[in-house]
């Protein structure tokens, strides 16, 4: 159980950086397309898809971690009585799941939009999802539940 937990935490932590890099890049592409009035293109569609894929991988890792975390710590009763653990099982998980839902809803609305509106929607929805992600990551400076930048 310890080895599985440690592998999952490391993968979850590394994937956070892949998500942030993709997030930054899709926002740059969206802003450039929106403000530069560029035509919607295949590369923007592809990067939008990659962003969703790394988010979905993180959701799967997160859900598995959730179960392993609760099991390892001795059940819900103990975990919810501990503020640091509660942060991961409530605030962190719920806000991140919300961010992933916002990104998926955005992707659907981008597909539905007229070509002139696609970059704008991409910027708004992926921007909102990235903001939610940024504020819900347990950064090392967060008192009580801060975690390392990598391992
Ligand atoms: C974009 C989405 C997400 C990002 C960027 C993210 C990022 C992180 C980071 C950086 C950690 C600390 C890892 C470490 O200790 O080194 C963490 C821990 C954790 N995350 Fe996420 N997470 C995301 C989504 C989720 C979701 C959707 C869930 C659950 C449904 C989840 C559940 C957890 C749990 C339970 C921990 C505590 C792991 C432990 O210490 O055992 N995460 N997450």
SSE topology sketch:
Elements: H1 2-35, H2 42-72, H3 76-80, H4 83-112, H5 118-136
Helix pairs in contact: 1-2, 1-5, 2-4, 4-5
The structure holds protoporphyrin IX containing FE.
Helical content class:
over 70%
* Intertermini distance: 18 Å
**How would you state the average pLDDT, rounded?**
95
Low-confidence stretches: none
Q: What is the chain-wise order of helices and strands?
A: HHHHH
Task: Supply the number of helical segments.
Answer: 5
Total number of β-strand segments? 0
| Structural class label | mainly alpha
The profile of the biggest β sheet is: none
Number of domains in the coordinates?
Answer: 1
How would the global form be characterised?
Answer: elongated
Small-molecule binders here are: protoporphyrin IX containing FE
Percent strand equals: under 5%
Return Rg in Å. 17 Å
